[in-house]
Specification:
This protein is of the alpha/beta class. The protein contains 13 helices and nine strands. Helix 7 (144-155) packs across helix 8, helix 7 (144-155) packs across helix 10 (195-211) and helix 11 runs parallel beside helix 12 (241-253).
Length: 304
Amino acid sequence: MTIAPAYHLPVLLKDSVDGLNVNPGGIYVDVTLGGGGHTREILARMKGQGHLYSFDQDADAEGNITWKDNCFTFVRSNFRYLKNWMRYYGVEHIDGLLADLGVSSHHFDDESRGFSFRHNSPLDMRMNKRAGKTAAEIVNEYEEESIAYILYIYGEMKQSRRIAAAIVKARAKKPIITTGDLIEVVSPFINKEHEKKDLARLFQALRIEVNHEMDALRDMLLAATELLREGGRLSIITYHSLEDRIVKNVMKAGNVDGKVSQDFFGRIESPFILVNNKVITPSIEEQQENPRSRSAKLRIAEKK
């Protein structure tokens, strides 16, 4: 198997794939192909048996597939459609699902995509460049209240209302087209001592809205819960509190809200057993080698 050029370094590679407890004859899904690191590791452990389906909605990711393997199928789609695609391929149950929910370094480094505040780029942020509203359309078209809500809920920005008001005022004079335009508008409300952190939250909030990330995550996790056979594993890497909360709730309670049901004896009724009660985080060595991994948390659960 020829290794593809690195899109980014895979995070928690061994721990996350170990978490799947791969059975060579099983059926597995990697819903975030990206650079292909996790996919290649899963395929290596399958030893030419079973089947692996890897999803990615970004056309760029498909270019990382430089191998031919009869046990592998690439699905160019958003992972929220997991259930539909498994039905399409005639798959009733899967033995494990892995997701690395972070944005790849490729997206931050590609100046044309608008994911990073480090470059003055078109304000796009779409994972799927073929569909959906761009970040520019959101900041230029959404109502002030909606922009404030996005910044507060998805970016946890305390100045969300003031920033939204400034955006609406600025766009009345001229459209906000680039990342540089947006930074210029919001700069009076950014704490200079925490500038990178505040801008990262701003861009995260817009990216989540552009790609409907929270809705997609909920849909995928609920589909995975249905598809996993008894003993099947979920191995999920998260990077921020919003997505981590949803993953934790599904694994603990079987629903995205974390509403716990108990049986007659007071035992929590959940479709999952937690494999790791404490989240797994990257080693100091991995964090130094791959700064993207510093906020990563790995949760693993097994279907009852």
